[in-house]
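[SOLVED] Need 3D model of a two-part complex

Original post:
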Amino acid sequence: MPFAERRWGLRHDGSGLLTHWRAYLLLLPVTGIIGLLFGGGLVMAFLQSIGAIGLLGSGQISLTAYQTALANPEFLRSLTLSVYIAIVATGLSTVFSIGLAILLRTAGRWASFACQVTLPIPHLVGIVGVLLLLSPSGLISRWLYMLGGIQSDQDFPLLVNDTANIGVLLHFLWKEIPFMTLILLAVLRGINPAYEMQARALGASPWQCFWHVTLPMMKSGIFSSSLIVFGYIFASFEVPFLLGSTRPRTLPVLIYRAFTDSDLTRRPEAIALGIILSALSMLIVVAYSWLVSRNYQSMSRV
Amino acid sequence: MSQLVLQNLTKHFSGATAVQDLWLEVQAGEILALLGPSGCGKSTILQMIAGVLQPDRGTIALDGKLINRVPPEKRDIALVLQRGLLFPHLTVGENVAFGLKMRGINRAEREEKAIAMLHQVQLDGFGDRKPSALSGGQAQRVALARSLVIRPKLLLLDEPLSALDANLRAEMQDLILRLQTQTGVTLLIVTHDQAEAVVMSQRIALMFNGRLRQVDSPEQIYQQPSDETVAQFMGGVNFFAIQAQGQQWKLPNGLVLVSQHRHQGAIRATIRPEQIQVFTEMRSQNNIIPATVIANRFTGTQRRLTLAIAANLTLQAWVTPTQDFHVGQAVWAYLPPENLWYFSQASALPQAVEVP
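Solution:
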């Protein structure tokens, strides 16, 4: 098939062009809404950040807000913390979810149902749960005290609002592992088990079979679900705000603080930080997709 | 020493019997076809031999060694499943080299062997393609190459050609037989297609409902089926109730046929439709029966005649297409005594097996 035909779905009678664009036309309502609400918001925020509009906008375009935001010594620390939490939580969720999905592969419908139990629970409820369980005066601390494991609540390790953000990570694992497992379980159940049988019959040990056949065949599910989880955690506000370390703060928390500062002149800086966060998120998604496609090509060479 | 010996092999799936007390012996370098209708337990047997399924009872021995507890990757047995099942995330070359990679063979050697094997299945230059870019026949050839490259002692093919069209199937049959001759590998083919089993194998093991019914050469199974079900499965269409007195076999309409086989009492007799000869003129010899053509169907390679020899007694005769007949024509059917076969009601006994 000539290139143009393949690329554009052109046919000699010209009907291919319509077929090709029909898919995009059908997507228009959803892309329109997203574009208008999200894209419009982004444009407005950008205009505010450069001082073109807004409460303190002088009409003079300047990049002062960005300079101030980037010069803030807390910016880099916050960015590092956000990336750290997102990478660790996504990585651990992915590993645990793959293991769990494989364990539950042959289980009945109850497995999928069990994975859905945590999905409708709001993050705030989860956060309260973590606080009630893991804070120095929480349930576990009290049980340990009653059992004589600790002498006072001061002996209980700090697991919420701690510098290592253990509470934040635990909350994200609790919420994201079932979500990822649900997706991976569906992917895994869609794989014909005969592929694995074939691999074993060609000399693959159970581990080799998992590594060279099952895992690569789950790849698309793993990548898409981990990307969703990473994107969500990276930009999540309420979890690090309520459970995270007080200093450094994650980027979304830093933005919130700047935005709600009594000093209204900090608004443009907060908005500039928001724009930077959005740009970083998009950059990470693009880089991740690129890495994944490259990795896929070189994953299992001869 | 025989290569593969299955003794008393039994497998149940949630109460249903898939394979029951199977005894079978496959000689080194032999091509044996496991033939039977869909769901008769053939694939289950292959999977148990390959080690991806555990038998409930019975033993599997390869080269005199019991391999029941040997994991599949250590059995030196390759299995080719239906439709080839190439790993979609690997290229053709990577698929072929898969078994070698699992055995820890270095990359240079893997590539060299994979390229040589692709040449053997006439797919030179296909190494970098993805399985999705292959036709059904090409995919099946890659699957074959992938199995043979590891030099297995035993190659198991599970309905390898069922998804291919007729022309391609004949081509693939030739290729498989040629590769088998080149490598000398012992071959066990599962198929539900009796024509394929006959063309490809030296011996056929015919199964129904998880049990072996007859293990014989294709000629033997064709000419001397062990029972009526076997005969029907192999394309037999002529069956008669006979009262035998030695070599004199009396048909229900009183006509007497002469057979080479001696028997006394009630039996069922059969003759293959292609062995019946049809004449337009009377000949004075035994086993000539007057008949009327009641149907005449041209198939290209044959002319299939249905002959009425008495009320409620018909005969099918498949003659060369050059012979011309018309419906209503009076003819004489000749049933050669050497081609008349019979069975009593007893089923075939399990094949005798030498204990290794």
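Edit: The mean pLDDT of chain B is 90.
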